[in-house]
Records
---
Amino acid sequence: MASANLLDFHNIFSLEGKVVVITGSSKGLGLSAASGMLQAGASKVYISSRTPSACEDACATLNRLPNKKPGAKAIPVPADSSTIQGIQQLFDLVSKTTDHVDILLANAGAAHPASIEKTGEKEFSDSLDLNLKSVFFCVQRFLPLLTVRGTVQDPSRIIVTSSISAFSQIAVGDVALYAYAAAKAGVNQLVKQLAVDLGPRHIVSNCIAPGLFLTDATAPHIGVFNVYPEQRIIR
């Protein structure tokens, strides 16, 4: 059997012609996912984050990829997906150029480590809004577009970025991820419910739960995590 060339995503799987929306995709894991999906044949990948210039820069980078399909493109749709108003804005922007969505990757999220004494109500609520509540309401709003093309043979997909912190305690030096870990544990249960409820509508729902890996967000903490082998950041 011929070995797969990992630089050619068509040898691994094909997303030819698929329309993809990714929240939190102007950098980090979301941007990497967008790159992979474009190279796997997606026709449109919508790039969203709070900052318009970051979305524009990410799309410029993605649209220079040499091995995406002719005519395929990344499209900037800046919006704050931590709020209901922002999710509606995202939906409105996406709806201008497509009548369906095949894949929704709810990736927007952030962790703000703090000790239990310094974790305030606002910080806790903000973390739940971004990391948990936004997932539900983003799925809810995009459901009409996700049901357009899904079939038994080729269902639409919801993918949600959870975290290893949903399963195990992770500390950043002397502080912890109280709200973030609770939100991600909630995400896992939410996606189980989505899978049961939306499966009959030809929508497959899954979580991914990555560990720590090197991004702009984790780079400042690399010295802390590299103290113990089991805490080292994936490169």
Note: Confidence is low (pLDDT under 50) at residues 1-5, 227-235.
---
Amino acid sequence: MDKIIFNESPFLHIIEREGYFFLHMARTAGRLVAIVPYRQNAGKYEYLARVEICPAHFPANTTKSEMQPRLYSITGGVKPDEDFRSTAARELKEESGYEVNAAALIDLGQVYPSKQEDTIAQLYSVDLSSVQQQTIEGDGSVWEQGAGVQWVSFAEGLKICDPLFVTAMVRVREQLGV
């Protein structure tokens, strides 16, 4: 039987199950998408990373002005009226400026991002080799101001400290036979 230990936030809850404590992303019912698009450039594959500041990845008492952007996968929470695939297409457009048909997304399966949460992340990729980038819309939040995207090589992608990025990149390479 689950016992909610903390539920004063619309974003997350802390739950105890049989003596095990974990986080639940309440706002998205524990459903997340991560997208790592690719393209061919000069005969080599490149992967699109999100350049943004994630406050959770800096020491306590670090001010926003002291935080430097880092590379991540393009992610987003699944809204109650959306499915994983349409969420991925929406987030890709919102956070990268690339618009694709949801049917073009390559399903890379699901992962649990961490043993400390019950969130399930659905991974996708898509070939952007012939897609023109538009203006990055963002969602208007303060943390998305100044965010952008950057193409990286496979070797650079392996150094990104985001397990969703690395997993999706490796899985799409497997599907491409690279």
Note: Residues 163-176 form the longest helix (14 residues).
---
Amino acid sequence: MSTETIEPIRGQLGTELARSAATRDPFRGIIGHERVRESLLKAVGSGRIHHALLFAGRAGIGKRLLAVRFAQLLMCEESQPGAGEERVVACLECRHCRRIQADAHPDILRVEPDGQGIKIAQVRELQKKLTYKPFEARFRVVYIDHADAFWIAAANAILKTLEEPVERTIFVLITDQTHKLLPTIISRCQMVRFAPFDAETVRVFLLDRGVEAAVAANVANLAGGSLERALELAEGEMLARQVELLDVLDRLDPTDPDTILEPAGTFSADKEELFTVILMIQAYFRDLSLVRAESSLERLGFKERAPRMAERARGLTLLGLERAMNAISEVTEALKGNVNARLATEHLLFELALVLNEPRA
């Protein structure tokens, strides 16, 4: 056979092998979280899987997506848990993979808040289902979404279940508020920490979804490492409200109640939107800190306001900026509870007004 004949065959073979390798990549289609992926693959490949995993990290960074893929690695018809990492796959085509993806698999159980939280009746119902063996797959996976939302009686009940592992059953608890979980529940789980995405990853993610380059660059610095929040910012009305928000911050005056009360009422009308507004406020003060420290303007979320921010930053102290960031963090955590959103927003804007108008010694 001539060289001319062999080379095309080699090229075709190389392409097929590359395609086969990509098809067998157990985490294809999932962005980032390499350490988490390595940890899950190692556990499934070795067969030494902790009976309860706690997926912890801020909202919108892919915890639920990886929880679904983890279940597929365990249940896929082509996967061989315990036979080595190279034999762990998620084909995404077999009946188990497709039904898991569609949230319609009988061996996937889900517990999530019913109203204000996860109640004892929900845990009792789960415990009843756990008395049966898995129906179809080799494993059963229990997702507990918003695991920080257990009522105290329900938390104590699920703790008993976690203390007595159920055969062929893996719990995946998902939370973005680990501090609200009982320490005893945390101690029964293997912690899997999810880090926020860096701004460049968020920017590329948005570009791949057709977001304009200027918008993607801006949003990437405002999204707090959350792809979900980035999409909300890019597709929603919040970008159009940036100018309004910045004008509000420029006008804040602790001696003029109207500069605080009026915007507080507007921002707190929708609690979900309020979290986005606070995230943008946090980005604003982060930018002020960067300008104050004479860092590169490329890192700013509000590049178009750089000259104005430089002027404002010169009048601020590092201690004042720290107080502002602490106030933002405290109000953010408080709003995750049952506090009055308007009063919390008024308090935050008043604290920020004090910082922004504090005479510099």
Note: Residues 15-22 have pLDDT under 50 and may be disordered.
---
Amino acid sequence: MGQRANYIVLDKNKITIHYNHWRANCIAKDLYLGEKIFLDFVNNCTIVDEIMENNWIEGCVIIDKDNKELSFWTLEYSREYSVIDYYLKQLVLKWKGWNINILKNRMYDVEKILDIDYMSKQKIYPINIPSTEQIISDHVNEWISTTIIIKENASLFVTRTGSIPYESILSYGQKVITLIQNKKSYELLKEGEDGTYESVLIDIDHKKVFINENNSDVLKSCKELWSDYEIVSSDFGYIEILRIAGLDTANLELSVHDVKTQFEEMVRQNNDFNPYEMADKIEQEYGNVQFSASFSDSAKPKTTALNKLISSLKRFFGKKNQ
């Protein structure tokens, strides 16, 4: 249990790795507090010897002080391209003089920046392969698992899965394309609509498969099953994979109002979480529980009175405008 993150500081040819147990889901909002508050927070986090395993880490920030490069990724981050783009433009204003990069390939990008061998040492977990019958009979009921778009000869075929995730669809191999093309077709979704969170675009003409999130297990496990195709798995977001495939997205993107609303929610600070209170609740429910030493990690950014006032005013006026 936790929201595990590593913060890696490069300073005068020295690498220092920090760890926080509860702030991976707060990376976007913590970075938005600005350089000084964020760096002070990182300095208060536990120093560790190694980066976490890929299957446990939920966010990573690299702070290159020598070159003023700030790079990061986090699982708890918007999948909407329009929101990401707006956030990065605003973040630059908080980190003046810094180059800011989002690591769309997550730990693959981290190992390149640090010039280390990391991903080859990580464990690969097996992906459940569905049967032909399961793929054929799968349909959308209460929720949408994955949106699948097939592009061929400038035409699009769009379908959705109900209970089968994209990892399982791709693990069936490239012969799954025929099964997909026989499923029910749908209209192309707009950004932010249900069904865009997990998206796959199969470009038959150019023999490429685009996945809108980075997934190292799929990249390693499905490569041979799609021998005629190149699998591109990165934290693109739904709109960006459509753009990469050459589609016009002008009428599919979020409105400026929706982008700003999601942005305000993304950067809003909420420091009510207390690990000790959570531990008490768990013990009351389950009895005597053994917690790891890091469970009580309480390091968090120390916001100023001005930050708190601005945040309160934004919440107040945001409610009035609803």
Note: DSSP finds twelve helices and eleven strands in the chain.
